[in-house]
Amino acid sequence: MSNTDADTAISALDKLIAQELAAVRAASRDGNRPLYESSSIRYHAYLTAKDEIRKALAGLLSDGWSVMRTDVLPGLGGKGEYEVEPNICYEPSFPPTIVYILEKEAE
Question: With helix as H, strand as E and coil as C, how does the chain read?
Answer without folding.
Answer: CCHHHHHHHHHHHHHHHHHHHHHHHHHHHHCCHHHHHHHHHHHHHHHHHHHHHHHHHHHHHHCCEEEEEEEEECCCCCCEEEEECCEEEEECCCCCEEEEEEEECCC
